[in-house]
Give the backbone structure.
Amino acid sequence: MLAPGGILLDLRPASVHRRIGIARSARTRPVGVMRERFEDERSADRAVARVVREGWLEVERRLRFPCRRLVDSVDEFRTFLDDFTGRHGEPLHDWLVRRLERALEARRAGRVRTRIAIDGPLDLAVLRKLDARAPRARVSRSSRRRPRAPAA
């Protein structure tokens, strides 16, 4: 249970399509972009917005920052996809795996280590629990409208 004044950190992937590339030395060659639906992310956004709107929590700060996951093989990338698609019911990305395999075959020459980069930002929201005894008044959409000027 979160005490009044307590802090809740909401950290999760942003609703942004992840970019897949081949990372070699300091450079990354783009290969493709995942096609996520973001249903779970949007549902979580609505839930957070609701508790803020109802006065249970207030947003102190929001921050988006980059996140890069590196994997060493196509098998590891498939494991990432299987875990991701299994939880989210996302479309298959077989086309992306095939494209990645072709790109890796072309890039594996030489002694420089080649890895698969999965880039997608994370969103962090810092939320503070408000005093339960004095929740903010809920504002309905109709009460947000400006009053009409009296007729002259």
Q: What stands out?
A: Residues 72 and 115 are 5 Å apart (CA to CA). Residues 139-148 have pLDDT under 50 and may be disordered.
